[in-house]
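lol ok so funny story. i was supposed to be doing the assay writeup but got distracted and ended up predicting the structure for this chain instead. priorities right. anyway since i did it might as well share w the group, maybe its usefull for someone
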Amino acid sequence: MVHDWSVPAQTNREPVPAIAATDVAALLAGWADGGHGSLAGRLAHGLRAAITSGLVEHQRVLPAERALAAALAVSRSTVSAALDELRAQGLVESRQGSGTVVRAPAVRSVAGTRMANHYYGPAAAIDLASGNPPDASHLPKITFDLAELVATGVGAGVQPLGLPDLRAALADHHTARGRITDVDQIHVTAGAHQAVSLVIGALVGPGDTIAVEDPSYPGIFDITDHVGATLAPLGCDSAGVLPEALDATLASQRPALVYLQSGPHNPTGRLPSPARVRALAEVLDRHGATVVEDVALAELAYSGRVRPELADQCRKATVITVESLSKVAWGGLRIGWFRAPAPLVEATGHRRLAYDFGAAAPSQFIALRLLPRIEELAAHRRAVLSASVARTVERLGTDLPDWEIEPPGGGSVLWARLPVADSGPLVAQAIRHGLRVAPGSSARAGRVADPHLRICVDRPWPLVEEGIRRLCVAWRDTQAAPEPVLG
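and the output, tada:
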């Protein structure tokens, strides 16, 4: 069942009383930290996040510029410039005699795909569903002119497999990690999701079987649904896929492809042990399987990237490695890639031309600049995420003690088990309280009812804290609701 989690549109009621300047300052805690933009730009970003998440609700009157400037310890001109930016975007409106009034974005309805649970819903809500960095403020300052871009060999800008310089850098990146790689083995994509989709589209047809972990990355189910594949769910334990389950599936169902994750698992956050990786590689080799190894989250393991990976261990199985800059750098870059045998790279390049001429050249150029600093960026992200996860686990343990939360080994997601059969009603109730979280069913083969909730905490703490408060209220409301009458 696909729930309709939309909420009624905002009414044009009279403006509500002004929010105090000190309250705004508390909501924007840390707004000036990090980043490379102007103070006004960073203030506009903080205010925008507070409005679009519903922390400052529709029709709320903002404090006078002078009072807000004093509370934030900035000049009035900084506040004026930030509000001008929000006015231009239609997020606030200034009226004579009424002050500056918040105009929250319009409500959007939820579509029927799994990933819709992560990216769609009421616009004025706190987003603890999608698992990407909230912005690009942690990235180093990058400047370049068009002459530098032209010098990369971009030409007309249409490079279906990626800019030559970036493909070469990525090949060197893999070679430096012990996997000798040629340029013709690299395909640059618009993120890891597209990489997986291209590979599956090239290797799997309607009715073919794909073996997948259960639960797994929700997007894999959208992809397999699109190609008309049959799923073979693989049994797992706390260390990942069970080798005996993989062996039995490969022997009995002969899947065209196996999709596995290495590194922090999405959504459970578990890490595979080196012994488990070696055992899985032995099974894959024995069957000569073709496997997509998704390592998009591998750099975010709190203790460092887990080695070896399947690509290091397999000798006979074909391993296609999928990576991305979305989790370490920024999802808005839309840069991922996969490493595969050259014939498959060429085949996916031809397939891609049916709907996409390649990733944006400026994004690839930025990726080329970021790649040498990937270890530094990953270390920073690991420190931030591990602290945020620990803080949230402690808070949820206090506020919702009947929930079971196993601290993840990496990433930004908590996989909380609720004392109910299905988390769907809580997700629907949370939407009514201005909070977006993802139900466990979105990560299950067959979209079966599931008691888990997927919560992303890669957000500024004031947003996470308010999200937890709203989640607690939604949980109480859900528990207080009468049981449905069956008949």
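The chain has a mean pLDDT of 88. The longest strand covers residues 318-324.
back to the writeup now i swear
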